Each structure stands twice: as structure tokens, then as C-alpha cells.
Amino acid sequence: MPGGYRLDATDDVDAGRFEAMITQVRRHLTDRPARAVADLATALALWHGEPYADVTAGADVVATRSRLVELRLSALEDRLDAELALGRHARIVAELAGLVVEYPLRERLAGIYLHMLYRCGRIADAQAHYQELCRQLDAELGLEPGPDIAAMARVEDEIRDRSAALAAAHAALGSRAAEVAESARDLPLDTVVTELLGPQRDR
Q: Which of 121, 134, 132 has the alpha carbon at shortest distance from 160?
């Protein structure tokens, strides 16, 4: 290149090493999540600020920078997903809380955050974050959440509602049992069962 230099981002450059490592890690992301977490952490540790920040911003540099930033975020999401698969939801709470503030419109990250909140039993926080995501997507992009994240929110809400109904039924049954026990101390066992559960049909 006359009058200048040409950047050749080979494997000797951190960016090239990072891309090669991510490609390798994704081969065992599903079947070996613990190894994937460790390898992704190693790859992400290669990052020190924005890529090519000291290079004059030509069109090629801007495109490469954008691609690498997206690859880093995707790798970060892969690591967080693997952490969840290993049941480590409690250890990534603070990290995820910061990331969803930094990238409020990134749906996959929001989905991981919601999943983490549900795992931690923070149902109200999960619902509030989902509603805020809906509001921001509509205000900024005129969009609704994608089908995956919307379906997850519906399923988790249904599980919550069923759990609440089951807990209420158990509480009611316990209360009824206490009442029967108090008033039927001297009654035959079959009478007590009928009082508690209702008439039993022959099988």
C-alpha cells in the first residue's frame, strides 16, 4: 500500500486468536459446558478495550471492529448460557444486571437474564424486566420481543401460577385436615377420610 501500512490480522494478533478460540469452543458448548465456560473466559480475557481503537477508522476497520464487538457479545452470551446450564445462576446475577443496563435492547441477553431471575425465584423482578423490555423495544425500534423470549415468559408465568395454585390447595387441605382432626377424634377412620376427601368410589 503506497504511503501507508496494511494491517494483517493473523493468529498472532489477539483478535485473530480470539476468533480461532471461539470457533473451537463452540464445538463443545452443549456437551461440555464446564469446559466451554473456562475456554470462553480465556478467550474473553484477550479483550483490552475496543478493538483497533488506535487505527484510523477506514471503512474496513469499522466493519472489522463491529464484527469483533458482536462476536465478543455473542461469546459472552454463550458463556452465561453455559453457566446457567451448570446451575450457576446465583454467581452471575451482578454481571447480568450490569450487562442488561449496558445493552438494554439485546434480546438474547435479556432472555438469559430473565431465565436467571426465574431460577433465583425473583419472579416479580423477571416480570418487571420483561415489561420494560417490551416498552423499550416498542419505543426504540417499534418491535415486540421475539417468539423465543415471549414464549419463555409465558411458560414461566404459567409455572408460577400453577405453583401458586398448588400451594394454595395444599394450604386448604392442611387447614381442612386440622378441622377434621379436631372435630372427629372419636369417629371411625373411614368417616374421617370421607370428611376430609369426600366420598370415595369403588375402583
A: 121
